[in-house]
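Sharing a chain and its predicted structure for anyone who wants a worked example. Both blocks are below, sequence first, tokens second.
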Amino acid sequence: MRAGNAGDADCYRRLLLQLTPVLRAVARRGLASAGMADTDAEDVVQETLLAIHLKRQSWDEDAPIGPWLRAIARHKMIDTLRRRGRRIDVPLDDFAEVLAGGESEPTMLVADVDRHLECLPAGQRKVVRAVAVDGASIGEAAARLSMTKGAVRVALHRGLAALAAKLNGEGT
């Protein structure tokens, strides 16, 4: 690294070539310990090599290079794991019999929602149904119900609070 930073391109190229298999093994091991496939290992290696190249002037030549390299590799691994997130891949075929096919009759859940909404005043009921059940935005609900956005927010808040109190046994 010292020679590479001093301008010796051949030494710098050899350093990167020698680091690549080590970084690849570290990336595969890190992904495996996180419970993920090693399919992203090559991306981690390339990002680490790029970061080493871009930050090589920040390395203190009086300090050992190992901890500096490990820190960069660790941060690139963490970045990859954060970007990827926790995903669990389960084949859909394993659940083909369990998954519902086609349209079905309204379930008890829909009947329960309707029953609970009936306890609300008409204005709150319409707003809660539009926003929470039908998925309309505040603006869409306001336009549909000829209300201001503020009135929709207030009615939604009061309606959801009343439903929460009822479901927690605090209401009448």
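Comments welcome. The domain at 108-167 is CATH 1.10.10.10 (Arc Repressor Mutant, subunit A).
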